[in-house]
Amino acid sequence: MPNKINTVTGTCTPQELGTTLVHEHLLIAWSGWEADSIVVKGFKRNETLKFCVDRLQELKSLGVNTFMDPCPSDLGRDPEFMAEASVKSGLRVICATGLYKEDLGGAYFKFYMHMGTGVNEIADVYTKEITEGIGDTGVKPGFIKCATGVLKNEAGRPHITPYEEMCLRAAARAQKATGVPITTHTDEAMLGLEQLEIFTSEGVDPRRVIVGHTGDSANLSYHTAIMDKGAYVGCDRFGLEFILPDKLRLATVIGLCGVGYAKQIVLSHDSVGCFKGRSLALPPEQQHLIANWQPTHLIKNLIPQMREAGVSNDKIHAMLVDNPRRWFAGE
User: Fold this and answer.
1) C-alpha distances in angstroms, 174 versus 2, 99, 119, 197, 202?
2) How far apart are CA 200 and CA 175, in angstroms?
3) Rounded to an integer, what distance in angstroms lies between the CA atom of residue 72 and that of residue 76?
4) Count of the separate structural domains present in the chain
5) Domain extent for 144
6) What is the pLDDT of residue 44?
7) How does strand 10-12 pair with strand 5-7?
8) pLDDT digits over 65-113, tens only?
9) Which DSSP string do the residues of 241-309 spell out, in sequence order?
10) Contact criterion met (CB below 8 Å) for 82 and 128
């Protein structure tokens, strides 16, 4: 396995990662946002950059060492913005290569799916970005992002669509070619096991996979089924209480730590520094449900609650430091 990890400003070793937030975003742009002529001219890059730099510096002051931004390439990924934010803040940032789920991602590669060449075409793009850089930016992704939604099949059941399967198989082949790990997006804490089945059928070691947003459910059977196959679960949406209250997210992590799974849990918030275009909007009476949706929430508020509930410092260290390191290193 590679002993060097691509960051947006160079490389580091797994041992240098330190405290790592595995799933946060500096900048998101929903596919097609440019069509919103009301807001498209309103994006202020310098102001947004300053906001993100300030946020990264606050995280650094709280002891965070590494910020992973798994923005897919079809969701407004801006590697030069990430690199500038990293340099100005002094915080390590790692970006991803990858494509988003079918219902909200870009449609460009659907053409290749219909041509029957999509898996290898996409895998080649991922591999080239990882080994040579994104376009002419010189920025190399350190991991691969892929996603599934909950679109229903003819039987009315959520399933991985042919397009999403194509992207997952491409991620698996690029992982095998480059050695970098995979993180995923899931909707409604579903289809994580199905994602793993696709990856392992392509020869990916489950220990190189984080099944993301698993923490959107308090169903411990779902969590343990994924971890028993060797993968990591992402309890990575703290603060998004309109999806699941933090008290249930905390109870899930505390309970799983109590029965021996601390070495397969990673923590984060899936926070977004800025949306190009319209941002996430809740009605005024629901704004309290995202009041803590900030990348500082874990360190400031939740880790103390975990300690109070009896989660040891060793287990907290495992979730924030050891597990990201082992995921990258392939240990």
Assistant:
1) 14, 13, 10, 16, 10
2) 11
3) 7
4) 1
5) 5-329
6) 87
7) antiparallel
8) 999 999 999 999 999 999 999 999 999 999 999 999 999 998 888 877 7
9) TTTS-HHHHHHHHHHHHHTT-GGGEEE----EEEEESSPP---GGGGGGGTT-STTHIIIIIHHHHHHT
10) no
pLDDT digits (tens, 9 = 90+) for 209-221: 999 999 999 999 9
- This prediction has a pTM of 0.96
Stretch 233-241: mean pLDDT: 98
Report helix, strand or coil for 320: helix
| Local confidence band at 3 (pLDDT 50, 70, 90 cut-offs) | confident
Paired sense of beta strands 66-69 and 20-21, if any: parallel
Rounded-to-integer distance, Cα 215 and Cα 86, Å? 28
Q: How far apart are CA 250 and CA 267, in angstroms?
A: 11
- Span 318-328, pLDDT tens digits: 999 999 999 99
Q: What is the pLDDT of residue 169?
A: 98
Output the six-digit token pair for 128.
């080239």
- Reduced to 3 states, what is the DSSP secondary structure of residue 65? coil
CA distance 175 to 235: 23
- Residue 278: predicted pLDDT: 83
CATH of residue 99: 3.20.20.140
Residue 267 to residue 19: CA distance in whole angstroms: 10
Give dist(CA 262, CA 193) in Å, integer: 19
